[in-house]
Amino acid sequence: MKREEALELLHEYIAGENMLKHSYAAESVLRALAVKLIQDADKWAIAGLLHDLDVEKVNADPKIHGLETARILEEKGFDPEIIEAIKLHNEMATRMPRTKVFHHALAAGETITGLITATALVYPDKKLASVKPKSIKKRIHEKAFAASVSREKILECDLAGIGIDELIEISLSAMQAISDDLGL
Fold it and tell me: What is the pTM of this model?
């Protein structure tokens, strides 16, 4: 599937501006991670873009979130690897472990976007351009900051073959490249 088709699908299911921005951020980060890990950048980017496709439909219920997306994507004939990674990004719904680099990269990459966004929003100008990697690294250890962001998922970057410092740099750079789209 081409990005244009994926965007149409995204806009069919996601109305919330913040969810759309999160999807764009995850797409950008997953593309950058795929390039770094010499993987299929288009495939990984589509997974990032569509990983939360059902979040509004299922009211973010962690017991089923991701499963409806999998059903939708299966009907549309998506690559089974994309569907599997999206399903497994929410382990509560599947009760199955993530076992592949792609799974860990999606879980870590989409999750760190929330921490990066929250970090940018505490800066006076609320701009990603002002955020430094060391600020994000510091925030990882502040459990009360962006408390809903799973540090455990972010740290799965090691299982994808990328250390936390590199994940932070790659992700921040990817999001800074699309900062206008993110409103940051």
Answer: 0.96
